[in-house]
Known about the structure:
By secondary structure, this protein is of the alpha+beta class. It is 52% helix and 14% strand.
Amino acid sequence: MKIDNIKPFDGQHCETTATGTLLLQLGIELSEPMLFGLGEGLGFIFWNMKSMNFPFIGGRVKPDVLTENIARNLNLELTIKETDSTQKAWEGVKELIDKGQAVGLKLDCFHLQYFSRPFHFAGHYAAIYGYDNENAFLVDTRQQGGQVKTSLKSLALARAEKGPMSSKNLYYTLRKTDKRYDLKTATLNAIRNNASEHLNPPITNIGYKGILKTGSEIIKWFKSSKDIENDFKTTAMLMEKAGTGGALFRNLYRDYLKESYDLLKLDKLKVGYEAFVEIAELWTSVSGLFEKVSQTKDFKYIEQASEILKTISDKEKKTMEILVTI
């Protein structure tokens, strides 16, 4: 069973790709930067736990929230379901597909057969639009192949995996409501909300404060790391290539601000866009320095990255202070 005439969303980031595919089925066609922006997706977290091999640096809001924000800003009905039962989880998705409804899935990408370099990350998303006796047919990011397939067994493992960012076989759908959305209003609300969130983090390892803190934490990390080569090489890859659109999601937000300026013609949006052009380049330079650290184990590159992170924190704070007032 495959849903006829499914239109896959062509994206770089997993959650916008999965949710974008569901939106296309509803006839809502928006760019990936616009979806990321309407999802109030820009964020930052430096996360370090004893159970982790090395710290995680993330550049977006926590998993699930992006789609929740998109649904709210576009006046759509979002239905999210979870279950401990692998069988019930599959039956729920199968029933929806049989009715012609594409479904968003939250997964641990380690188990997905089309990943050429498997790693455990339980905050991955894909849309499912079909199945047969052996395989599930999914829409994933451009770099993972777009329309792909994986065995039903591997899909079940990916959905049920436990650990950081995981959920209990989570799946979701989107439906239109009687209330239409106005893109200009939705854009303004999303920018204000995202800026306010970034400026008022609940703890110091989140938002612009988290970026500043990371400037100090990476020095401690370097000195205590048992595998500098792998730690910083993997982190550089996650920051620049693993579904983020590059530069830890700043490229997507930069392009969102450009689209928003073209839509609304507000000077503050142009200022924000120009700032994020520079900010995105700085983030790319940090990931490049992490790559050099992995290759050379030279502390000077960590010192350089630390100083750049302090600069980024200040620039993001000042830019969001402008955007929160639009």
